[in-house]
Every structure is written in structure tokens, then in C-alpha cells.
Amino acid sequence: MSAPAPSMFTPAAKAMVEKLGLKKGRANLEEFADTLQALATADRNVVAVTSDSRGSGKLAPFGKALPQQIVEVGIAEQNLVGITAGLAACGKKAFGVSPSCFLTARSLEQIKNDVCYSNVPAVLVGISAGVSYGALGSTHHSLHDFAVLRAIHNVTILAPADNFETREAVRFAAQATRPVFLRFGKAAMLDVTPAGATFEAGKAIPLRAGNDVAFLASGETVVHALLAAAALAAQGVSARVLSLHTIKPLDTAAVLAAARECRAIVTVEEHMLAGGLGEAVASTLLQTGLAPRFKMVGFPDEDTVTGAQADLFRHYGISMEGLAETALALLK
Length: 332
Prior knowledge:
Strand order of the largest sheet: 3-2-4-5-7-6-12
Helix content: 25-40%
Order of helices and strands: HEHEHEHEHHEHEHEEEEHEEHEHEHH
Radius of gyration: 19 Å
Shape: globular
Largest sheet: 7 strands, mixed
Number of helices: 13
């Protein structure tokens, strides 16, 4: 029997979670599966396509409840994308679900041509993304998906931070008229979205106000940025936190406002530094002529260390302590 995964939070970070009153949700994958099943129950045109991934995608209950609305293609990701595209072209709202590491590598040509070039409203769902597979290593890590999909025209890229963003992203995708890519990890998430917030694709959600440094984060890194901002407040540093759940199209207005109103910007992502959120933000700033102090936090161009997601996050500075230290060094 394998050892339990290490906690994503140090004792100090857990104390900060309690201080902020953040409630524990569940894995975004579970929220995705339940939201999709509810949509499919109400609309028989909503269908799921899986590549031997209904278990890892939490879609077993979907398949049992709605067996006529799920297609299993086996371990054949290129076929999955083609079938998802075909169903979407025929009027179905098709969600193709597969581990992101394989979906966006083995099937890149099909994503480019069958989905994006053909402009069908297919939804591709990359599950167990980032380093969710942990110690399975680089073959199973998905640290390239933002980069390759940002380079393809006509696809919206979403990486929700918590259960609220996940629900709203799935509902948005079900109504979209263009291709959508959804990215989900495996860990249980904390609810970080403030009450009353609204979700709109392409619009960041502000989680905390501040004018010294701005954390621009996406996906499962957002909570660590929020904790870091709270830790910095105890040291007299005012930190803004934005959840950039949409990688493409980027909320350039929110990015530029942060650059004009804050002394420094730190981008945070569960992705290679090449081609991800950080480079998208940097490009936006430079092309606008803004040059705040700037640091990208993510995975460098090297062989990643082996370990659980929590181990990798801490090793690469994606933690309350690591991000607070990065921000302080940048401000100095």
C-alpha cells in the first residue's frame, strides 16, 4: 500500500487557512463530473467521450446514470479528439475527457485541425493536469499544455482555481460556440472565491486588494498566492491577488491595471515557465510599455524532481512561504 500524499500546506500555512476562514472543497475533477452529469441529465445532447479515463475523470456515475450519453474509445486519444469533434459538428455538446499530458501531446494535430481549424464547439478536458500525477514523473506531467494550445488559434483555455470557478467554467463550456480547453488537477481545493463574485471567461476574479505587489495566478496555485498575500500583510506588505482562470484570452485590462497600480508583479502557474501564463503577462506588459519589477514562478527548463505534487510545489517555490519570499526579494 502506498504512503499517503504529503499535505499541500505547512503547519504555518494551515494556520493561515484557518485565520482566513477558507473552507475545504473537493477536487475540481469531482465538481466537473457532477456539473457535467447535471447538464447531461437536463439535455441529452450533452455527451462525454473518454479514453479509458472515466474512472480517473470521476465519470463512472455519469456512465451508470446516462449510458447512452458516454462514449468509450479506449486508450486512443487521437480517436477521442476526432470523435469529440465529430459529435460537436453534428450538434452534440461533446466533452472529450483524457489526462492532459496525453490529450495535448499525442492528439495535438487533431486538436489543431479537427477542432480548432474546423471551428467546432468541442470541449476538451485535460484531467490530472500539471504535476497531479506526482511521482509518476515527467512522462505523466502536463507542463506544456498552456504553451502548445496558446500557439493554436481559436481555443479558449481555462484553468479553474476552486469548485466555484470549475462549476462556472463547465457551464460556460457547455454553451460555448467555439472550442474550449478545460484543465483540472486531482487535489481537493479550498474555496477561495469571495461571496458574490461572478465568473466570466476572459475576466480575472480579484481575491485580494493591494498595491505593493500583485500575484497573478492560475489553477491550483491560486490558493498559495492568496496565503502568501496574507503572510505578507503581517509584514506590512500590501499584496493584490488575481485568479486568472482564463489563460487565453488573457484579461489584459486586469494585468495592465496591476502593473500601473503595484510596484511589482509575480506570476504563478503549474506549468513550464516557457510559453505559459507568465510569458503571456510579460508580453502584454512589454508591448504596452510597462515595466514593473517582475518575476515568473513555475517550473524551469530542467528535469523536474520526483515526488508528490506537494513536494514539487514546495521545491519550486509554489507555496505560501516560497511566494512570500519571492515577493519580498523582488520589492527589495
